[in-house]
Fold:
Amino acid sequence: MNLQQSQSRTTSAGATRSLAEIDHEIAHLDAERSRLLAERRRVINFVGADEVAIGRTGTLVTLDGVAIVGANDVKFGRAQVITASRKLDGSIDLDLAATVWSEDSTMPSRDANGEVEYLTANGDIVPESKVKLVAASA
Structure:
């Protein structure tokens, strides 16, 4: 079996699709998802629940009043992979104990809907649409 043959898969309906056809469909679905996320963001009223005016400083809490203790961040960096193995499903399993990490930068994590994720005092992760600003307590 050559590479081209191995990159064709039979679907559950019995049709054969090439890797290129699948990649094209994924690109189309990604574009539709981006459009829908932009529309979702326009519909959400992020400031509607806030108890402080725009531009004023406040404290972040969930809509239920649980304190926000930080943003759920993604750390970018480099990893020098010393050893790894292949799992049965074909994915790579890094030997983290033998990997050297160096951090380059940090940015807020976003959920599947593109919203910034926040960490609550309870240890839960909540999206931006479930957070409001309240007057800072003295």
Q: What stands out?
A: The longest helix spans residues 19-43.
